[in-house]
Amino acid sequence: MAQPKAVVLLSGGLDSTTALAVAKQQGFSLHALTFRYGQRHQVEIEAARRVAAAMGVEEHLIADIDLRMFGGSALTSDVPVPKERSVEEIGRGIPATYVPARNTIFLSFALAWAEVLESSDVFIGINAIDYSGYPDCRPEFLEAFERMANLATKAGVEGRTRLRIHAPLLRLSKAEIIRCGLALGVDYGLTSTCYDPDERGRACGRCDACRLRRKGFTEADQKDPVEYA
């Protein structure tokens, strides 16, 4: 029997790479979707390419959308990326790195591709660490989007396909995510998490994403294989 197809949102970061590995372990044929959305750097795009090649992705699409036209985020404008914040500070409020409606937009693209592929499954790597800061990383958001998706598509209306959005990392800490990925054979040296890498692609080690990543590796008692500036 043919493997069921899954669309996996792949940024090239630690979380989305782990979600891709989970989808592979569950027996899905992998169709990865990455976005060049006007983010500050292209390092994560190259990381996504490396990950997709290493993990035997069936098809990897890179979609071009320009969220810089709206701005509103340190990732899509000239607003400085927050640095040197404590974990407690990171967990309070919505940070400047929040990109307005990003997961809604990304999931909408994934929904369109899934319908064309006749796929019932979309994977996204959001997790509990982001929960407090990003409104589009909450379980309520995912549940609402899934309901909407099944009302908004021809496949859903005709009853041919009922879309499921999988967020296997949602309630895991970074350390738990790392342990999960390592158990599945993930090479985290291929990934890029940093919001503000240098011209050589090295992680800054000081932004929120780097600090959470490093904390996760420390708590998992593992060495982070990426290079830091």
Task: Give the helices and strands, then pairings.
Layout: E1 5-9, H1 14-25, E2 29-36, H2 43-54, E3 59-64, H3 87-90, H4 102-117, E4 121-123, H5 128-131, H6 139-152, H7 154-157, E5 164-166, H8 174-183, H9 208-219
Parallel strand pairs: 1-2, 1-4, 2-3, 4-5
Brief write-up:
The protein has helices at residues 14-25, 43-54, 87-90, 102-117, 128-131, 139-152, 154-157, 174-183, 208-219; strands at 5-9, 29-36, 59-64, 121-123, 164-166. It is of the alpha/beta class and 229 residues long.
Radius of gyration based on Cα positions: 17 Å
The CATH class = Alpha Beta
Please, what is the CATH homologous superfamily? HUPs
List the secondary-structure elements in sequence, H or E. Answer: EHEHEHHEHHHEHH
Give start-end ranges of low-pLDDT stretches: none
- CATH architectural type: 3-Layer(aba) Sandwich
How much beta, percentage-wise? Answer: 5-15%
Estimate the global geometry from the Cα principal axes: globular
Task: State the total count of DSSP E strands.
Answer: 5
Per DSSP, the total helix count is: 9
List the strand order in the largest sheet: 3-2-1-4-5
**Tell me about the biggest sheet?**
5 strands, parallel
Q: Estimate the mean pLDDT confidence.
A: 92
CATH-defined fold name: Rossmann fold
Structural class: alpha/beta
Structurally, the number of domains stands at: 1
Helix content: 25-40%
